Structure formats: C-alpha cells, structure tokens
Amino acid sequence: MGTLDGKVALVTGSGRGIGRAIACKLASEGARLVVNDLDEGPARDTIARINDMGSQAVSCVGDVTAADFGERFVNLAVETFGTPDIIVNNAGYTWDNVIQKMSDEQFQAVIDVHLAAPFRILRAAAGPIRAAAKQEAAQRKAVCRKVVNISSVSGVYGNAGQANYSSGKLGVVGLTKTLAKEWGRYRVTVNAVAFGLVHTRLTQALENESASVDIAGRDIAVGVHRERLEAIAQTVPLGRGATPEEAAGAVYLFCIPESDYVSGQLLVCDGGGR
Q1: Which tens digit of pLDDT belongs to each residue from 58-90?
Q2: Of 93, 157, 165, 252, which one is the catalytic site residue?
Q3: Is 261 a catalytic residue?
C-alpha cells in the first residue's frame, strides 16, 4: 500500500529533471499520473518508468503557455482517471539577461511559463475540484487535495540577470497564498517550494563550451560554467546542490496526508544556503 494509492496527480514539465523525479516519486507511492513535456519522447520515457513501478500514466504533450493547455491538461485527467487530487506546477526554464538588455519578449515568455501557465491550469481545475468537494461534503467524505507550485530562491531573494524569472517565481508565491485562502473551503491545500541549486540539464556544468535547448522555437542557453557552479555550491551549508530526487522529496512532503493542515506556505529547499 502506497501513501498516495488511488490519487490522481498532474505534473507539468515531467519529462525530464525535477519534474520527472516528482512524477516518479508520486507514482512510487501509488498515484496515477498525467505527465507533460514539450516533446513526446521524454514524456513517453517518464510513462515507461511509471509503468515499470506498477502504476498508470498518460501524457499531455505540449507547451504549458498555450491558451488552451490548462483545459486540455485537466480534461485529460478527469476523462482518464477522475478529479485531480494533486497538481504540481513545475514546468519552466530561465532566459537570462540584465534588465537594459532584456526584451519585452524575453520578459513576457518567462512570466508566461512560470506564472500565467499555473494560473490557467488551476483555473481549469477549479470546476472539477469544486464539484467533487461539494459531492464529498454531501456524502460526509473527507478528501484533501493538494496543489504544489514550484518557486525559486531567485524569486524569494532576487538574482542578478533574472528580472523575468525572479518576478515570475515570486508571483507564483502570491498565487499560492491567494488560492490557499480561496480553496480552503474545498479542502485543498496550496503550497509552494522554492528551490536553490538543483543539478539538472538546465544547470549542467560547462567547461568552455556553450549549450542550449530549443523551447517553443527559441534557442535558450543552458548550463553554468564549472567554476561558477563550484562557487555556488560552496555557499551551501550542505556543500553541494540537490539531486532531482531530493528536490522531489520536498514536493512530496506537501502531497502526503501528514501535511493536510499545512496550506499557504513557502518551503525553501536550498540546503540551508540563505
């Protein structure tokens, strides 16, 4: 018996990195998953891992910033498994520059993925969640649902070169605290996790070469020069960045029954770095 047996979980950006680790952690505890990635291949790989654990998963491939994505994502969950029990808004990326060199497009694209996309997904989920909560109340059933929004220490403390990312990541904290107040009546807890350095393809160590990924037709630079990465790690009391699995553990804390009375909170997961 898993802690999350029978639960329906939606995780954006779960084809790779932290999102994949979150999806697999929830699945390992019995949850059924709707996974998402921009590309079909990574989503399919995550589903294969979940199936190997003995759980079930389906994919909703596509860009979370698309106007219709929230409805499509939530509807797939409802039609396949039932009302969502857990929603993790994880998808995102960085597109850095100092403010005088940052274009409107660059600022807005990052705001869209980190703030507008979670807003649309949660708005789409409001109807099914409210309907289920009313039915459960009439039947005197106690069901607690969970929302976990992913923030960053850049949003909490700011970070040079990340006016767009920091703004979006702090904005999602405001969204979190507001929905905790709006959705408490439906027995939904809404919390956020702010990560520090987590080792993924977006923070891969670079020597002298550069690396990039294609996101919605944009060539986005990724990675951190090794010297800079080592310097950041030295500021962390635990002496290193987190693994994706350790990051997933922080999200998992907000998904289990033991946190049913914790809502509207921001957990900073950075190894004690600030």
Answers
A1: 999 999 999 999 999 999 999 999 999 999 999
A2: 165
A3: no
